[in-house]
Amino acid sequence: WELGVSVVHHEDCWDLIFSNETCAQRRPWGYACRLCDVRGSTYSTQASLWRAHTFEPFLNWVNNRLYPAKWLCLFSTRGATCATLLINEGQVSQRVCHHPDALYRKVLPDGSIQIAPDDETLIELVPLITT
Length: 131
Hints:
Elements: E1 2-9, E2 12-21, E3 24-27, E4 30-33, H1 46-66, E5 71-77, E6 80-86, H2 90-96, E7 104-107, E8 113-118, E9 121-127
Antiparallel strand pairs: 1-2, 3-4, 5-6, 5-9, 7-8, 8-9
């Protein structure tokens, strides 16, 4: 039904960084995802629907987003949290603030970097290890 990748930080679910749902429905001409448009693609088997609709998009996400990422960016402000994958730490300043030189930075013993652009916002960059 659903394939997802969540980010858990300090025992809290921070964000869902990948999610894909498939609801297989048998139709006279094959299988289709009930969540998609009625005119969506149909597949001869349920396995081929799952492969094309769930597993191939996940493999694409792993190859094109997860594998090239060097950092996991954890963002928190006023109780709201989100996470995103970054190729380089410079992307933080592009997405979060317009004055990157004003960012407070602290490198933690585990290699993570904390950044605080203001008193209510905390950004933590966690290095990813890919092999």
